[in-house]
Every structure is written in structure tokens, then in C-alpha cells.
Amino acid sequence: MLTKEYVREVKTEYADGIKQLIREFHDGGSISFILENLGRLPKDFDGSFLPDLLKHKSVNVRLWAVKTIGKLANEEYIPILKEVMQYEQDTSVRRETVSSIGRMRNPKTKEILFNILDDKDPKIVCQAVRGLLVFKGDKDVNEILQKLIIHENEMVRSIIHKEYFAKNKDFSLQPHSESFDYLRNVVIHGDTIEIMKLLNDESIHLTFTSPPYYNARDYSIYPSYKNYLEFLAEVFKEVHRITKEGRFLVLNTSPIIIPRISRAHSSKRYPIPFDIHPYLMEMGWEFIDDIVWLKPESSVKNRIGGFMQHRKPLGYKPNSITEYLMVYRKSTDKLLDWNIKQYDWSNIQESKVPDGYETNNVWKIDPCFNKNHSAVFPVELCKRVISYYSYNNDLVFDPFGGSGTVGKTAKLLNRYFLLTEIDDKYFNYMKSKKSNDIFDQHPTKFLNLNEFKQSIK
After folding, report:
1. Would you say the pTM of this structure is higher than 0.85?
2. What is the per-residue pLDDT for 368?
3. Could you give the CA distance from residue 453 to residue 442 in angstroms, rounded to a whole number?
4. CA geometry: angle at 61 spanning 58 and 63, to 5°?
């Protein structure tokens, strides 16, 4: 009976033991099991049986034969692997073949990998690039790889950009994990774009916001939907500039309905999250996740009432009980680990998310209602976003401050906040006695635009 332990025992005791074992157990399933469980190979391993398996009728056998050849790193197999790339039809085997060629780290593979760069499969091209980067610094390798900066595939371009064209950031103004004192726990009354233009590049760690909905409230009237989207694009372009490298924007939006003006006309539904997405991608935000905020059906406007009466097809309009949290990360060549390592060990430990965190992308949270603001963030929603996407003492920004829930929650979680709000009513509400439970426990500056300008001199 074949077991992992028996396979590894045979491999260790006899140089040609696996060869003999495959002669005994020669069906496709057994061969795959044997090769899959070989683990690390001894120096005297006899792989002479492997080339014959490269034309086996089982894709899985061919795949594991290629992987095993890659482990051997024997240059005698280079022409055999080159041949596999010419006749093999299965995508997974072809990709693994390129990987095995690259793992050999042999200069004799360079010409083969150069030719593979023309493959139509971008994953195969990426594997070839990975194999060639072993020889980074070689004149021919550098010249050929740098030309891929205009490759049609975005993954290929991103690899080449990181390896050859990325510029190191200058953190002389401020360490990555810190923020400027004049931005900490500040609420600024004024146009958010005008205010952001006063901020240095890479000033904030996290933005969590819900922009005003298109022509849905008195404080959000725009001449056209296109104008509305362009306004949001201008806002988030500035947010991108002031966001630290590799940090996050979490955008709460949902489709919006503009009611019909009479029974002779139709209402209009605008898919805001989907329409703003292309703008964000173009300006350098990388899409990370979509999180669905699920609300009780009793909390939303009833759209299904008419259909419930007539049940006529085409007239179905379900109640909208979801909103989207679209999660974006400022594009960077650095991995998340780099960002994490910018913090000291104690902060990393203290910032760990406690038990009870959400494990999926559907968050069931009741909405909040406030007579002073028509669209208030639930504190629980803020807690999750801020704790999942920032560290202690980070600066959390909301360009549409509203009633100040992001600021309140940031302080509860030992973060700093920066809010901007253009509406007099909401700014005065945050500043008034009504907001004692939000800001008075922590020193907060309430500034108009001119006062803010003076504070940063």
C-alpha cells in the first residue's frame, strides 16, 4: 500500500528506489501520488524515468514530472523542458515547465526564457520574467526586460516597474508611521479640495468616508451626474496624493434613485459605486475588496409595494438593503509587510484586532438615524474599518465629516482624526454642546480655512 511515509522511505534508502516504485505502481493516480509526496530530493536521486512521464496521458502526471525535474536543477534536462514548451497543450503544465526552467538558475536557460516572453499567456510570461530576474544586472537581460514596461498585461508591467523603474520615496519630512501635529484631531470648515491642496504629500494613513449622494439631499446638488462623478474624482485624486504609500481608502456608497417628476416619467437609478470605480483605478488606487453592508429590510424605503400588488413581470423593484464599502489601496511596489514593519513592535501588538472580527464580506449592521444628519455612519461600521485598516496613532481622514462619527470612533480606537466639512450646519453641530460626547473628552481644534492656513505656517 502506498503511503507518504513509504514513498519517502524508498526515496531515501535507494537511489533508484522511486524509479522501481513507479514500475510497480504504474497507473496515473499512483504515479501522481508518488511524485507529489517526494519532498526534498537527495543528491544521488535517479531521475532517469522522468522524461518518459512528460508525455503521459495524465495531465497530473505530466505536471508532477515537470515539478520534480525542476527540483533536480540538472542542466541535462534544459533541452527536454524546452521541448515540452513546444508540444505541451495543457496550460498548468506549461506554466510549471517555465517555473522549473527558471528554478534551475542556469545561464543556459536565458535564451529559452527570452523566447517565452512572447507567449500569449501572461502568467507564463510572468514566470519567465521571474526566472530571468535571477540574472538581473546582466546587460541583455536588463535590456529585454525593461522593454516589457509597455507590455499589454498589467501584471507584467507592474513587475517590470517595480524591478526597474520604481523610485524610492523620500521620508525625510516625516516617518511613514507618523503624522503632522497640526493635522491631529482637527475639524476644518471649508471646501475639502481646497483644504487638501494645503496638505503635504503622504500625510494621512486611512480615509474612510461616505460622499454626498447625487442630488439626494439639499447639501448635494450638482448640475449633472457627470459633474458629480468628476467632483468625486477630483476629491479622491487629492486623497490619493495625501495618502501614505500603500495605505487605504474605504469608500461607502450605494446606487441612488432620483424620483420621477410625474407619473408620465420614469425615476432614474444611478450606480455610483460602479461608476466611480474606473476613475479611482485610473488615478492610481488599487482595488482590494468589496464589502457589503447589509441593513434590516425594515430600515429602508419600501420599493416592492407596487409589485406586491400587481406581480407583473418587468415591474419588480426589490428593497435596497445593502450599501458598498469599496476598499482601495494606494498603488505601490511594496508589499503589506513593508508597511507593517514601519511600526515598532509594541504598536503592532497593541493594534491587533481583538476577537469577534468579521470573517466575510457581508456585514450585518443596523443603520443609525440622527435628526441633525440624514446619513450617519453607525459607530460599529466605523470601528471595523478603522481597526482593520489602521494602527494605533495613525491619522484617519474623512473629507465629508458630517456629524463627526469617524472622528469620534478614531479617538475611541487610539487614532488621530482629520475631518473637513463644508456645510455650516454640520460643522456647527460638531462644534456645539451637542457634540460633547464626541470631541470634548479629547482636545479638538475647530478651524475655518484661514485659521487652518495659519496653523500650518
Report:
1. no
2. 75
3. 22
4. 110
